[in-house]
Amino acid sequence: MHRSGELYGQFQTLDQQKESATLGMWIFLVTEVLFFGGMFLTYTINRHYFFTAFGIGSNTLDITLGTTNTIVLIMSSFTMAMAVWSAQTGKRKLVPLFLILTLALGCVFLGIKFVEYKQKFDHHLIPGYAFDMTYRSTHPAPGDDPKEIALEKKEVEEAFASDPDTNAHAQLYFSLYFAMTGLHALHMIVGAGLLVWLIKASLGGRFTPQYHTPVENVGLYWHFVDIVWIYLFPLLYLIDRHR
Amino acid sequence: MSEHSEHIVSPKIYITIFLALILGTSVTTWAAFQNFGQFNIVIALAIATAKATLVVLFFMHARYAERRTRLVIACALFWLAIMLVLTLSDYQTRRPRLSRLVSPAVYYRG
Questions:
Q1: A26, A28, A189, B93: which sits with the fewest CB atoms below 10 Å from its CB?
Q2: Which of B10, B28, B41, B59 to mutate to test the interface with A (most CBs of A within 10 A)?
Q3: Average pLDDT score over residue span B44-64
Q4: Which of A83-87, A144-148, A156-160 has the highest mean pLDDT?
Q5: What percentage of residues in chain A have a pLDDT greater than 70?
Q6: Residue A206 in contact with residue A1, Cβ under 8 Å?
Q7: Between A and B, how many CB-CB pairs are < 8 A?
Q8: CB A242 to CB B34 under 8 A?
Q9: Which of A71, A171, A235 sits opposite B25 (nearest CB)?
Q10: Least confident of A8-12, A74-78, A107-111
């Protein structure tokens, strides 16, 4: 990183320079809102038409892992906010510490996501030729809770009774599940890369109360990714849980 | 704009927001297991929006940002609303055509 917060010719004050950078970041986030917005729109329309298939698809997701991931991501947003605060108040040693914590929590999130994806592969819930909504309840693994399997079997049978095309419609749910969580995970990976860059710079004591625009702007990005998950969690994990 | 106009949010506020977000997550998970009929989705989205608002206002400093930045945020929501409302109303008013949306049998077994 070459910049250290000197005033560039096109700005009158450092404040103006910093505000312009932050405004630019917000404008980028607006485009991100619309980017994810399109996916949420597709989700809404399909859920409206195929609510039964979306319900049983959602019920196959692991609520414990989903809730844990939500809490992990909120914690990482908190540590990111604290990293910004540390830079603003000149606590140079705390900046890399909070950034490393944020990165670690981000990696925990991605690790849990990986475990969830692996489960979907095992249960034949990846859209494609091998997709089979009935697979898990008819091929229980030794560790599975028989009660839970019986409940899933009943649910899947009911779904097929009301909608013979459940397998096709549930694939829509899982396509959207993988597209939306995958895109979100991709944003997390980009964020993790940015954090590595910030950690390197902050270890050299680069960020001061006068200059910490990169920390602030990566923070904005990280919080935005958190907000996307705040919506993804209820929409993907919490459909028809009360049945 | 005067020099050093940046507003510094105290860790106390960050901790309060953090706890509120955790509480929101617990409430939304609890609410999902209750049967509120049609209102389950409304409750879930209301809690998610409340959580997102807290993140934007405090973690992203929108509450302390200058008016130009707030205008950009408002524009984001406005454009998102245009996309959602107009597309959904289009789908709502073309229901008969959509009933032909049958699944391609070739994509799955059985």
A1: B93
A2: B59
A3: 95
A4: A83-87
A5: 98
A6: yes
A7: 160
A8: yes
A9: A71
A10: A8-12
With beta carbons less than 8 A apart as the criterion, state whether A36 and A228 touch: yes
Nearest to A120 by CA among A107, A128, A184: A128
| Residue B13, token pair as written in the block | 């506020």
Cβ of A85 within 8 Å of Cβ of B21? The answer is no
Higher pLDDT, A13 or B110: A13
Q: B90 is written with which tokens?
A: 């289009």
Closest residue on chain A to B68 (Cα): A23
